[in-house]
Structure of Serine/threonine protein kinase, putative:
Amino acid sequence: MLLGLGQTAQVHLARAPDGTRVALKIPKKEVRQDPRLAERFAREVSFSLSLRHPHLVRGLAGVPFGEGAFLALEYFPEGTLEDRLRQGPLPWEEAVKALLHVGEALGFLHERGLLHQDVKPSNVFVGQGVYKLGDLGTLRRVDDPSAEYAGSPHYLAPELFLGARPSPASDAYAFGVLAYEVLTGRRPFQEAAPRQAPRGPARP
């Protein structure tokens, strides 16, 4: 069963050899054939299998490169935080729990010198009262000198649109937008966001 179809991969519901249901992420052909995109998928496989935290989506198995590339992740039948928010804002106690869980995962990444870059409701998965941050394909090192960034326009910190490098502060901004959305049921800024922001160095 197809669970999701994105720009770079398809996600299917599958069963592991032991019968456990998993979310099977398979990169598209054009991703496997593009060196830059293939490297990003391989990085996601590596991070998903090596990083362990109670509030990060757990990678179960994977092949980083080639025609047989895949990533098996734990499956969440309850869906994502985005699915929950379609019904309105979370009750206060549930909202606090969701934000604590996501905040702990984000802090864990920052302590290891990593940025998530794409904190948003559709990347937070829900299961049995636990919230987990997923989509580790956008992770990058804090000390990466490049001004290139990943993320979703509504959750991007303003300085990124001016060419600043991503930082823990830009992750914190996205987390703040997420918190507002969880508590109110809507994003703080409703205007259409630009599809692409300038990526050159900031100018005085």
Q: What stands out?
A: The radius of gyration is 17 Å. The mean pLDDT is 90. The chain has two domains: 2-74, 81-184. The first helix runs from residue 29 to 33.
